[in-house]
């Protein structure tokens, strides 16, 4: 008969397997020959804002939901995205956890400040660079950019506490295994983008619609 601790580990293992099984390359709908490499600004305006507000469809479903910090990076289903992203690279929606530690005891350590992501004079959001250290505190070649929405885009007097919470904790993580001879500058997201050319919505237009949605939401709350 299994001990309670063994049963718990088995349940955790089953949960992780079920989470990974929900991410399948067959379910990613992108045009033939499409390479998913959006600009930083597009990750905010075309994906993260829409995901948080849940008011408009995403351009593609290439960014998957996952309980990111349940796994070490080499346990993530990154290989399943090889047909659309660069080698050993993938994008995920997730919620940040305190300390950014994984269940194995590994740690994503910050290796730089928050960098603003701009559209004209508007700060859309921020990105920060992390490197993964194993449970034995050994530095690995796994790196990650975390993208978050600028909370000031939401009205300070907005009564929607759930929305405020999602802005604080809901992010996009871009994970990649970097070879030893790769330079960090090769990871510049603002050089090329396949998805932006295919999408008719500009960053400014999306930002404008976002602000209009916030105004409508606030007016609706005031009328109630």
Automatic annotation (TrEMBL):
Record-annotated NAC domain positions: 30-178
Biased composition (Basic and acidic residues): 206-224
GO molecular function: DNA binding
Sorted UniProt keywords: DNA-binding, Nucleus, Transcription, Transcription regulation
Protein species of origin: Acer saccharum (Sugar maple)
Region called Disordered, residue ranges: 182-224
Positions in coiled-coil regions: none
Pfam families the UniProt entry points to: NAM
InterPro entries tied to this protein: NAC-dom, NAC_dom_sf
Residue stretches of biased makeup (Acidic residues): 182-203
Protein name: NAC domain-containing protein
A biological process term (GO) from this entry: regulation of DNA-templated transcription
